[in-house]
UniProtKB/TrEMBL annotation:
UniProt keyword list: Cell membrane, Membrane, Transmembrane, Transmembrane helix, Transport
Organism superkingdom: Bacteria
Residue ranges occupied by any ABC transmembrane type-1 domain in the UniProt entry: 114-345
Native species: Aquibaculum arenosum
Ranges in a coiled coil: none
UniProt cross-references to PROSITE patterns, sorted A to Z: ABC_TM1 (PS50928)
Family: Belongs to the binding-protein-dependent transport system permease family.
Subcellular location: Cell membrane
Main location: membrane
Protein name (Swiss-Prot/TrEMBL): ABC transporter permease
Membrane topology: Multi-pass membrane protein
InterPro entries xrefs: BPD_transp_1_N (IPR045621), MetI-like (IPR000515), MetI-like_sf (IPR035906)
Transmembrane as UniProt keyword: yes
Membrane spanning residue stretches: 21-45, 120-141, 153-176, 218-237, 276-297, 317-345
């Protein structure tokens, strides 16, 4: 009996370690296959779109021998399978090519513009979660009554009205008429370059440097586009929260808790809300990823120098290196956010471990 009890813990530890190694191996294999599939899709996009990268570089008036030389330098004269392997190797080395529009490496351009999108999307999703989740809960609790109808109307407007129209109206009312917010861009001209760039996110950089005038000016500019993105996320998050809560409020454990005399607030905000956290994390993660991929219309309306605007300008200039590089980053954002949500599942729900 004693020998068995002493031998059991190492055996159990070995089993757990084996399971974790297998789980980690499966996760890494899944990520590798996803990334390879992403590269395959972006490569095919670059070959299917009727845009000639060599022609975009040399222009349509270049001599034929110059055009052919550029095609050879880009490897476009090679067989398609060979071009794909070269493309994968370049991406793995962090070489996304050089942007025709800016003349800089694409990865350098993306590193410059992505913090602006990250800052805007993070504030937007915070607004969406802070207001959307309580609104969805209230709508579920007061089903088919006026709070429910109000939340549904707010969500319907957020889904139906084009976000670029809301942006233009917001600039007209809150900037041009009332002067409550800043105009387009991230900063006024005379505040640019004062706070040293550490993270690329002006609010954080200004706070680190103690430049509170710059911080207030940046906040003045970001509040309106962040509120619009937050409203867009709020519409989706509140609707999904309502649906998830309605399902939980009809469960037997809710009835049992009420019969035992548990307060209604605890039943709703502790018992029911806790049981929707896992699917709710998925909802928030997908919403956040959609904002991080670059809110093209919002960034265009507010002249926000983020990933969405960079991708739009690259498409208009037929800059395929920039388009494909930005597409890969968008795909990696979705993979990263999904991985993060999977880790959060394990924290909020022990059964997922």
């Amino acid at each position: 009996m004693t020998e068995r009890s002493l031998a059991a813990p190492p055996r159990l530890l070995g089993t757990r370690l084996t399971r974790r190694i297998r789980s980690l191996g499966g996760l890494l294999a899944s990520l590798a296959l996803t990334f390879l599939g992403l590269l395959c899709i972006t490569f095919l996009i670059g070959r299917i779109i009727p845009i000639d990268p060599a022609l975009a570089i040399v222009g349509d008036r270049a001599p034929a021998h110059v055009y052919e030389r550029v095609r050879e330098e880009l490897g476009l004269n090679l067989p398609l399978w060979q071009q794909f392997f070269i493309y994968v190797g370049q991406v793995l080395r962090g070489d996304f090519g050089t942007s025709v529009l800016t003349g800089r490496p694409v990865l350098e351009d993306i590193a410059r513009v992505f913090p602006a999108t990250l800052e805007l999307a993070t504030l937007g999703i915070l607004i969406g979660v802070i207001f959307g989740v309580p609104m969805g809960v209230v709508a579920a609790v007061h089903r088919d009554r006026w709070p429910d109808q109000l939340v549904r109307v707010i969500g319907l407007v957020g889904y139906s009205v084009p976000i670029f129209w809301l942006g233009l109206v917001g600039l007209l009312v809150f900037y041009a008429k009332l002067g409550w917010v800043g105009g387009s861009g991230r900063l006024d001209f005379f505040h640019e370059g004062i706070a040293p760039s550490v993270t690329g996110m002006i609010l954080i950089d200004a706070a680190i440097a103690g430049e509170w005038d710059v911080f207030r000016n940046a906040l003045h500019h970001i509040v309106l586009p962040a509120a619009l993105l937050g409203y867009f996320s709020l519409a989706y998050i509140s609707r999904m929260t309502r649906s998830l809560m309605l399902e939980q409020l009809n469960q037997e454990y809710i009835t049992t808790a009420r019969v035992k005399g548990v307060s209604e607030a605890r039943v709703i905000w502790v018992h029911a809300l806790r049981n929707i956290l896992v699917p709710l994390i998925t909802v928030v993660a997908l919403s956040y990823a959609s904002l991080l991929e670059g809110s093209v219309l919002t960034e265009t309306v507010f002249a926000w120098p983020g990933l969405g605007r960079y991708l739009t300008n690259a498409l208009l200039a037929a800059d395929m290196a920039a388009v494909l590089g930005a597409t890969i980053v968008v795909g990696l954002v979705f993979v990263g956010v999904n991985l993060l949500s999977d880790l959060l599942y394990r924290l909020v729900d022990p059964r997922a471990r």
